[in-house]
Amino acid sequence: MIEEIATVSAIHPDGVEVVCFSKSACGQCQHSSNCGTGLVSKALPGRDHRFIIATDLSLTVNQQVRIGIPEQGVITSALLVYLVPLLMILGSALLASAGLGLGDGGTLLGAVIGGGIGFGWASRLARRTSLQLTAPIIIAPLLPVSQRD
Asked: In the prediction, which pLDDT does 69 show?
């Protein structure tokens, strides 16, 4: 389970809306001023991700919760998004070149058409399967930390 801390931003009748902020893995070391990745991570603003998660827990706005996404869903989604279009690009380029005997221009056109079909097919498959595989769940609310004098 891939876990992240999120904050409840709104309460809905069918669940809660949570928001979590993406953190850059880079920019934390002493070489970040000389590293290209560190410079890029400083230049781009952070992005928040919002989800509506169905739950029967009684949560309040601004309460922090631990959310999770199953690893199997992330791996399956990545395979769909990357592998299906790539295989369609290669297959259609091979078909245009070797199967139909088209030249370089035909091979390039076949790859472009195959890539478009592959991305469309992957998008359709992802919509059908990703709701069950990558739907985030609330693992547990975090306990508030009290300050002692």
From this structure: 85
